[in-house]
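Trying the structure run again after the queue cleared.
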Amino acid sequence: MNLRRLFSYCLVSLLLTASAADLVAVTAQARASAHKKNKHRPSKRRLLRMHQAFVVSKNLRLMAQQLLRERTPAGYHGVETFARQHSAEDAGALAWFVSGYAHMLDHNPAEALGPLKRAQANAGELADYTTYFQASALQQTGDSKQAEALLRDFEKKFPGSIFLRDVHVTRTHALLALDRPVDAVVLLETDRQPVRADVELTLGRAYAASGQAAKASAALRTVFYTMPMAPEAEEAEKELLRLAGQVPPATLAERRARVDLLVKGKRYSDAVTEYRSLIGDGSPVDRLALDVALGGALRQSGRAREAKQILEPLSSVTGEVAAQRLYNLGEIARSDDDDAAFQNYLAQLRQVGPTSPWLEQALFSSANKYLVKRDSPKAEALYRELAQRFPNGTHGSYAHWKSAWLLWRQGQGAEARREFEQQILLFPDAPEVPAALYWRGRAAEEDGEPGRARAYYEKLTRRNRSFYYAELARQRLKEVGVAPLAAADPALAYLRVSETQPYPPLSDPPADNLRLQKARLLVNGALLDFALRELHLAVEEEGGNWEIAEMARLCQDAGRYDRALEVVKHAVPNYFSVEIPNLPPTYWQALFPRPYWADLKKSAADNGLDPYLVAALIRQESAFSPNAISHANAIGLMQLLPGTGRKVAKDLKIRHFTPALLTEPAANLQMGTKYFRGMVDQFGAFEYALAAYNAGSERVQEWQSVAKYRDIPEFVESIPFTETREYVQAIMRNANVYRQIYGTP
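Done. C-alpha cells:
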C-alpha cells in the first residue's frame, strides 16, 4: 500500500464513520470550551446565516445522496450546477464541498482541489471541513509544503473540530515528506490514546525516520500484532521488516496472539500461513498445539482434506489440544456425512474433554445437524446432554428449550411439561422463556386446566408485552375466558415482572447551538456520518436527553431509516418489553418507520395484504434501505432476486425491466407485494408464506409434509432453521407492534 492509497483508506474508513475512540478524543476539547461557548452564545447573524444555508440546501440533498452513492458524471454535474446557481451563498459552498469530497472518495485528489477551493470562499461554519480536505488533497498530490502550511494553525482556528486527530495524521505525513521527523513525533505522540491504527503506523514511521528504532518498533508492533484486521497492518509489517536487525524479533507469544486474532476475524487462509511460520520456530511441545490449530484453520478455510492429513496422526496430544483435534476431525466427518466416524470422535471427545468448550460446540453443531435432518430423537438426546453438561454455557438455555420442545413434538407430554417448567425456573431471563410460558399454557389447556393456562398467559402478556408469543397468549386468553386462576405455580412465582417506567420527557434541542445546526446542514449534503459526530459533541456541550431522538431524525432526513432504527435499538435494547406509552413517540417512529407509505399502502391494497405486515417484512429484510443488496444479490426494500423481479415484472406487464429498477422503492414494493401475495395464495397462511419467503417454497413444503402440527404456531416453533423460525416470529410480532403504534392504517 503506497502513501496515496493509505491516505485514501484514512479518508474512507476513518473519516466516514466516527468510532467511539474518535468521539472520546474530540469530546475533551469540546468540554474544555463548552463553558465559554455557553457564556457567549453565537450571534443571531451566524445562526441566521446557518439557517438560510440549511433552507436553501434542502434541494441539494437528493442530488448529493446520489453523487456520494454512485459518483457518476451526471451526479457531479447536478451537484456542481447547484453550486454555481448559489455561488455566493453558503449552500453553494456546501455543494462545492460535496463535489470535492466525492472526488476524494474516487481517489482523485487532483480533481478534488478545485471544488474544495471554491467551497472555501463561503464555507462559514464548514471552514474546518474545507481546510482539512484541501490539505489532504494537497498532501496526496505531493504538495506537502502547502499542506503542512494549511494545517499549521488548524487547532487555533478550529479548536472544536471533529478532525483534530485526522489533521495531526495528515500533517505528520507532510512533515515526514519535508524531512522533519522530530517535529512529526512531537505532533503525533500526544494523540496515542485512544489507540488508532493509522496514528500508530504514522508515528512508527516518524520514530523510524528520526532514528528511534525501539520506539518505532513498539508503535508498529501495536498495529501488526494487536490489530491484524486493520488495513494498516500490511504497511506496518513492511516497516517492521525495514527495522530487522535493529530491534529484537517478535516473541512467539506476540505472533501467536496475532494469529489467534486472525482466526477470530475469520481470516482463516492468512491464519494458515501464520501457523505454518510459527510451527517452524516453536518448541516440540508448542509444535503439537500449533499443528492442531493449523488443522482447525485449514478446515475452516475449506481445505478439509489437508486438515485431516495433519490432524489424524496427532493422537498423542492431550488435554484441550486433544479436544480441539477431536472436535475438528468430528466436524470434518459431519461435513462428509460420515455419521459413524462422527459418533466415534464425539465419544472420544466425551472421554478426553468432558468439560471442554470443544465438546460443548461439538454437541451443539451435531444436535443442529440432526434437527435439520428431521432425526428428532437424536437431536433431542444431544440437546439434553448439552444442557446438562453446560447449563451455564453459551447454548445452555437454548439447548434445554430445544430438548423440551422435541419431547413435546414426540408426544412425551409429561416430560415436556416438566421441562417447560424447568426452563422457566433455570433460565428466567433467557429469550426462550416466552415460548416456555406459552406452550406450558397450551399444555394446561389440553389438560383441562383453564385457570392454570390463564395464569401462564397473563404472566407472559405482562412480562413480554410485545413479543410474538405475547400476542398468541392474548388470543388464547379469549378462548380461556374468565376461568378462575389456579393456585400459585412455583415456576410462575419465580418469574419477576419488571414494570417499566415512562421515559423522562425529552428536552428540546437547543436552537442556538451552531454545532447542531451544522449537523443538520451536513445532512443536506448527504454527509450523515460527519453530522452524527457533530451532533454528539453538541450534546456534550449542551447536555439534555435529546441526542437519540435527534440522531434518529437526522438519519431519517438522510433517508437512512436503517441507521435510525439501529440508533434507537442500541439506546433501548429491551424495547419489546416496554409499554407503548412509556417510550417517546419519536423512538417508536424510528424503531417502526413508515417511509414510502403511500406506495406501500397502495401496493399492499392491490394485493390484499395488511400494509403493517408488509412494513414488518421490509423492516426485517432491508430495514427500509432501498439500495440494500444481500450476499445472495437480493435487491431493495423487499430483497428480490433479479430473476424473481424479472418474472414478476413480466406478470405485471412492467416493460424494460433491469435489476436497477429494484432499487426504486415504488417499483420494488409493486413487485415484492405481488410476489409475496403469490406465496400467501400458495400456502394459505401468512406464517407459511413468510417461511417460504426466507427459506424457499420447497423447504416449507417439505416441513409441512413430514409431520403433523396442532396449528400454525406449532409449525413455526418446529421450523428447524433458527434464522427462518426467528424471521417468521419477528415479522408477525412487528406487524402487531405497528398496529399498536399507529392504529388503523
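Confidence is low (pLDDT under 50) at residues 1-21, 23-39. Worth checking whether this holds up in the mutant runs.
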